[in-house]
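Supplementary Note 3. Input sequence used for the single-chain structure prediction.
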Amino acid sequence: MKKYFHNQKGLTLIEILISIVLLTVILTSFMGFFTQSAIFNKHNNVKLDTIQTAQKIKNLINTNMTKNILLNDNKIDALGTIQTTKLDAAYLSKYFNPQTSYNYWVELSNSLIPNSTTKLIQVKIVVQDPKNINNQSVTYTYIRG
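The predicted structure, written as discrete structure tokens, is reproduced below.
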């Protein structure tokens, strides 16, 4: 019987250590990519949540707020001039509750429809993440008669 393994050489300890170091460097670079991807994904989820909350508040304002309510609460006068420009969550919770953990407020301003005398109240809705104030969403709607 012939000896097939007689002249074959094995791997040295140096070659094994070099291959382990190279494999570690490659895997470490991939792990950094996955970590950054997870951080980016979390940031996008928070941004999406603030956008959805702003849309929810916009829909609640469109269905629950009228000029008469603002007039009765002395937020506007009889001519539609705005007396209070910022409405906080405590005031808005009297009329609706969006059930959110985000900070939100509403800013009012007068607006005219082009070629018309109809005054609308422009409502700017700001929703902010309390953990990071740079994460905020802004949307607009109008309050009509």
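Helices lie at 13-64, 67-72, 89-92. The chain is about 45% helix and 25% strand.
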